[in-house]
Amino acid sequence: MKNRFKNKFIVPDLVLQEREGGYDKGRDVYEQILRAALDLLIDQGYRAVSMRRVAAASGVKLGNLTYYFPTKEDLVRELLNAVISSYEIEFDAIVHEEDTTAIHRLEEICVLILEDIGTKKTTRFFPELWALSNHDDFVLERIQELYARARHPMVRLISEINPALSADQCETIALFMSASMEGMTIFAGFEKPFADKMPWLERLTIKSFIDLIVSMTPEDLP
Amino acid sequence: MKNRFKNKFIVPDLVLQEREGGYDKGRDVYEQILRAALDLLIDQGYRAVSMRRVAAASGVKLGNLTYYFPTKEDLVRELLNAVISSYEIEFDAIVHEEDTTAIHRLEEICVLILEDIGTKKTTRFFPELWALSNHDDFVLERIQELYARARHPMVRLISEINPALSADQCETIALFMSASMEGMTIFAGFEKPFADKMPWLERLTIKSFIDLIVSMTPEDLP
DNA sequence: TTCTATATTTGTCAAGTGTCCTATATTGGT
DNA sequence: ACCAATATAGGACACTTGACAAATATAGAA
């Protein structure tokens, strides 16, 4: 419970990979640009992310923006990478907690994910990604890589809770869990019509997941 | 099982509301335009839906397109309405089947939804809607109206399976089920990385849903 | 200070966008 | 065949978009 809030404050919205050369000011402007682009994406959607708007929102001239990001594709790719990386760091941090029972830890992970779904950033950012991933293979692969890393700790805990299950079976269950939770973005995400029902959806989710894992027999899945 | 395929062939992609006046040819062109716009949306995403592209794809001159749809907003609204209506008709058809047990009918509904998620049209169209709904209240209300009608038959069956549950509890469970299934679009939808795992996700889904409904006690939810 | 790598500005380009307007053609009932 | 309602075509407008180029300014190590 404490860890949830700890992560919330530690993990930044953007994680930028270190650049090769360049001055300090250059790196600041670089980050400023990505932050402005993210705000634009969250507040007004992908349609609003144009080179000129990003330039204006970040207080940078258009010509200077194209110096850091020669093409819009560069800008978008770096932005998605930076944002997705922040989630990956969040999930990787979960793996290194070994204090309680497997069931309790799995519950914590689900709570963490579902609480995050209620966030403005997550509610707005991911549907945009899902739409983009339908026509952009880079986005598709990058987002699936994120989900794969999110499932990783789940798979381990599922196997620990029900050791009779094979690795493939655990993977399928984790996939099912991840998909189930992501779907709630549209209904109970930030400012969505059922946002107030999220606490009960969390209880339903956890109860249903735990019941599924413990009652699952190797014959139910290949 | 037979009904699933029956619906697949009967329900058209577009359901247009009847117009007031106009010649026959006008109605044909009207439908042609919406169909071209839908194809564009599905194959290339919302960014590709411009007035000129729709005009070209439907073999209509730009000036004529603005005769039928004076503004792009008109075109998009009519398109979404026409597509969403087709899904509503599909779900309403389910309500009028009273041949087997409640559990079996609920299973059939879930199979129908999950099979539909594997469709190219659904996999491509809905993420686009979800993204749009974040910044367009019309889209948000229209899509939530669709989901409400999709939950309707579920709520009745849930209540029939477990009569101890209150109406609100049944609503929450149906919401949970709908969200869970929608989430699988991103993972196991058309040409998605886990599309081949959909059959097992269906089995997991159904088992988990039925177990949840029958094992749920009124104390688990308010 | 000097000087090179880095950063910033200003301007321009062709292409695409939504919307509007006017003239012309076609439909289908009388 | 007539003719009003409907449909189609073509062009224009103001605006945005991504990309590029050349000139200038700044940083920071030597």
Layout: helices, strands, pairs:
Two copies of one chain form a homodimer.
Chain A: H1 2-10, H2 24-44, H3 51-57, H4 62-68, H5 72-95, H6 102-117, H7 120-133, H8 137-161, H9 167-188, H10 198-215
Chain A binds a DNA duplex (30 and 30 nucleotides) through helix 2 and helix 4.
Structure description:
Chain A is mainly alpha-helical and 222 residues long. Helix content of chain A is 73%, strand content 0%. Chain A has helices spanning 2-10, 24-44, 51-57, 62-68, 72-95, 102-117, 120-133, 137-161, 167-188, 198-215. The longest helix of chain A has 25 residues, at 137-161. The model of chain A is unreliable at 1-9 (pLDDT under 50). Chain A binds a DNA duplex (30 and 30 nucleotides) through α2 and α4.
Which short descriptors sum up this protein?
homodimer, 222 residues, mainly alpha, 10 helices, 73% helix, 0% strand, elongated, disordered N terminus, DNA-binding
